[in-house]
Amino acid sequence: MPIKLREINVTPNPTVDIAVQNVHADSPIVRAIDHTVLFIEPDTVVQDHNDGPSEGRSQNLNAPPQWHEDGRVSDPIFPQYGYDRNCHRISDYLREKVVPRTAWKPYEDLPLGLCLYRHDMHKDNEASNHSGIETHVQDAVIRTTNNTVYREVRAMGGPRGFLCQSSHEDFLRYHKHLIDTVLADLRQLRAQVDAVLSPTRSLADELPEIQRIIQERTSREDDEIMSAYPRLSRLFPGPPS
Question: Which parts of this chain are annotated as the region Disordered (predicted)?
Fold first, then answer.
C-alpha cells in the first residue's frame, strides 16, 4: 500500500517533569513547547499534497485536521516525555499525548525533512559566527543513529529482511534489539560529549573536540541513509519553495 510521510508539529503533554540545563546557560529550560513527530498515512487522502504542505501551515481550528484516520504517529523520543510507546493512531496521540490546539498554538502540518533542513541551516549560521555548540552535538547524534541502524538492519538481512520476519513476535524481538543497540551507542556518545563540555571551558576549546567526535562517525553508511532525503522530500538539496 502506498504511504505518505510528513512531519507534524504539536505541543507535548509529558507525563514526567522535564528539566534541561544548558551547560553554557545560567537557568534551566523546563518545558518543551515545540515537538515534531513523523506522521505516516495511507496515500489515499483526497487533497493536494503534490508539493507537500508548505512550512508552518496550520490546521483550521474549527475543523478536524485533514489527516487520515488510519494514520500513525511515530514519536522517536517518546521516553523523554514518559510516554509508553513510540507508535500511536493519530486520534489517540492527539487526545492523549499533546496539549489541545489553540489559536496561539495550532497543530502544524509540515513537509518531511523540515526539521533536518532547519538543523542544517542553523548549523551553517553557527559556523559563520562561532556561537553555540548544540547543533554540532546533534550532528554527532544523527550520525551515530544512522550508523547503528544501518549496521544492525544489514545484519538482519536488510530492510526487507527486517520488515518481513517469519512472525510478528520475531519482528518485535528484532525491533527491540535495534532500539536497545541504538540506545547503547547513544549513551556511549553521551559519555564522550559529557567529557568535553564544561561551564569552565570556552567554545573555542570544546568545538574542535566535538568536531573530532563527529568525524569519527562520518561514514559511507551515514551518507547512504542521508542520501534518501532528496528522494523523499522536496526540501533537499534546496530550500523550501
Answer: 46-75
